[in-house]
Structures are given as structure tokens and as C-alpha cells.
Amino acid sequence: MRKWRHVYLDMWGENVYFIKCSALMYKKALKDEFNCELTESIKFTDQARFKIYIDPADGTPLYIIWVREWTSLAHELVHCVCAILKDKGLWLDDCSEEAYAYLIGYLDTQFRKG
Predict the structure, then answer these.
(1) How many domains does one find in the chain?
(2) Is 15 helix (H, G, I), strand (E, B) or coil?
């Protein structure tokens, strides 16, 4: 079983999780680790997914990124960072662009480690 990589974003108070594996392994890992079920169908041919789940243990959001191949990571990171920062009231514009770019780069570096 593939292992989840976790990054806690202290500044934003959010947990982001990442896993690289097959679609079938992702479905099983999501259930095993977080006791969450996929809320939409996932096809064998799907390459990546970003989804926000609610942690059944404490009701906090779980920002979950799954990719089959590394080439999909940047795309999913953009979705994830947009969700986190918009939720905090920081919409993407000329003044916030650097915060978005920094967070995407930071998460990319953290998830590619190991």
C-alpha cells in the first residue's frame, strides 16, 4: 500500500494529504486512512483528483490530492491551493498572486520528497 504524505499548513491551519498510486489503491487508501468514501465515481483511466473531505473524527476539512503520475501534480495543486486560499478570503489577483505561487511551490516540493 502506498503511504500518504501529509503537510500541515501552520499559517493557514489546514491539512493537505497526497498519494500517488492507481485509482483502485486510492479508493482503498482513502477508506483505510480517513474512513472516507469516494463521493463520485472514479474510472480506471482517471489520472488525478483533488477533493475536500470532512474528517469524520473532528469535522475539519481534509484537502486530498491523488495522482497516478507526477505529471498531474501541478494541475491538482492549483485546485487545492485555490480552495484553501479562497476559503480564507484570499482571492487570486495581482496582490495575492505571490501567496498562491509560493504555496503551490511549497506543496510541490514537500510532496515530491521521499
Answers:
(1) 1
(2) strand
97-112 as b/e: b if 16+ CB within 10 A: eebbeebbeebeeebe
Question: How far apart (Å, rounded) are the C-alpha atoms in residues 20 and 91?
Answer: 29
Plot region of 111 (φ>0 → left; ψ -120 to 50 → alpha; else → beta): alpha
Q: Give the separation between CA 57 and CA 109, rounded to whole angstroms.
A: 28
Q: Tell me the β-bridge partners of 6.
A: 17
Average pLDDT for the chain: 93
What are the tens digits of pLDDT across the range 76-108?
999 999 999 999 999 999 999 999 999 999 999
Q: Which domain holds residue 57?
A: 5-112
CA-only gyration radius of the chain, Å: 14
